[in-house]
Amino acid sequence: MTHKAGFVNIVGNPNVGKSTLMNALVGERLSIITSKAQTTRHRILGIVNGEDFQMVLSDTPGIIKPAYKLQESMMEFVKNAFEDADCILYMVELGEKELKNEAFEKRLTFAEVPVFVLINKIDKGTPEQLEEAVAHWKNRLPNAEVFAISALENFGIPQLMNRVIETLPESPAFYPKDALTDKPERFFVNESIREKILLHYKKEIPYSVEIETEEFLEDDDIIRIRAVIMVERETQKGIIIGHKGSAIKRVGMEARKDLEKFFGKQVHIELFVKVNKNWRSDDRQLRRFGYQNKN
User: Fold this and answer.
1) Pairing verdict, β 115-120 and 53-59
2) Are 31 and 22 in contact (CB under 8 A)?
3) Mutual orientation of helices 185-200 and 246-263 as an angle, nearest 10°?
4) What is the pLDDT of residues 60-118, one digit of tens each?
């Protein structure tokens, strides 16, 4: 029996549903999902294993014009996703007609690996709109295969998955067959806390925050976590904590519930807030938080 394995990289503009697709394909909630742009900051691998295949999916940040060093690092993740792909999933929303980055459009047009254009959120439109969108993208990227999907409703996902597996090269598995992701547990703790901050705080606050899990102690029946929420300014610290600590309590409680589901055991979580001035523009800090190579 031949075995196929390859890297399948998901790219697209912010908020088109890349993380929802990744989670639907993997069958686990690896990428955080909110309605805010730039929710995904890192490149997250999700691994789908079958008897005769291994699909290594990569969820990348949305394509944006970088305004500060953190965003530059995020766009490096996207660039790298083009370079090491065995298959590219370019995701658009129904009604979206432009690729916002000319260089990325060229890469898709002249890609030497299979490219799939995924028209997502088709449940939000009419059959006529879908027909028009399919014709538009077939004309715009003639070398690509066009798929209509709804990642949220799981529509078209099994068919897409089967077709992607067909295109993968023959290869042994890259990761152990029971692996789900390349990220350590602490990464998912950080992301779960950051997701709650994206959901409950407004304006610049969620984008000024970084999470660092300082302690992750696992026993047979409980995981004890101590995590620090970094902010850029003293005023943001007060907002994160809230009146008599009510806001940070809510973040901790909701993150704990999600992490108990994720790890399948009881979780005890302690949260602290520290000011870490201008971390988003500091190369040393960005390396420390895994946004830049450490070499």
Assistant:
1) unpaired
2) yes
3) 140
4) 665 556 554 665 655 566 666 667 789 999 989 888 887 766 777 788 888 889 999 99
- Three-state DSSP at 93 gives strand
Cα(124)–Cα(23) distance, integer angstroms: 20
**185-195: burial string, b at 16+ Cβ within 10 Å, e else:** ebbbbbbbbbb
**In this structure, are residues 272 and 226 in contact, taking their beta carbons and an 8 Å threshold?**
yes
Contacting residues for 186 by C-beta, under 8 A, at least 6 apart: 213, 216
Closest among 263, 182, 250 to 217, alpha carbons compared: 263
The answer to whether 140 and 133 have CB atoms below 8 angstroms apart is no
Picking from 54, 34, 53, 76, the residue whose alpha carbon sits closest to that of residue 193 is: 34
Write the single-letter amino acid at 269. Answer: I
- Regarding pTM above 0.90, the answer is no
Strand 53-59 relative to strand 44-50, pairing: antiparallel
CA 84/CA 80 separation, integer angstroms: 6
Amino acid identity for residue 22 in this structure:
M
> Which helix (H) or strand (E) covers residue 283, if one does?
helix 283-288
DSSP 35: S
Which residue's structure tokens are 């001035």?
277
**Paired strand residues for 147:** 118
Beta strand 222-231 with 266-275: parallel, antiparallel or unpaired?
parallel
**Structural tokens at position 161:** 């998955």
Query: Tokens 């060093």 — which residue?
Result: 69
d(CA 158, CA 147): 12
Q: What is the pLDDT of residues 193-243, one digit of tens each?
A: 988 998 888 877 877 888 999 999 999 899 999 999 999 889 999 999 999
Distances (CA, A) of 156 to 97, 253, 264: 21, 35, 30
Token digits for 151? 């990642």
What H or E segment, with its residue span, contains residue 246?
helix 246-263
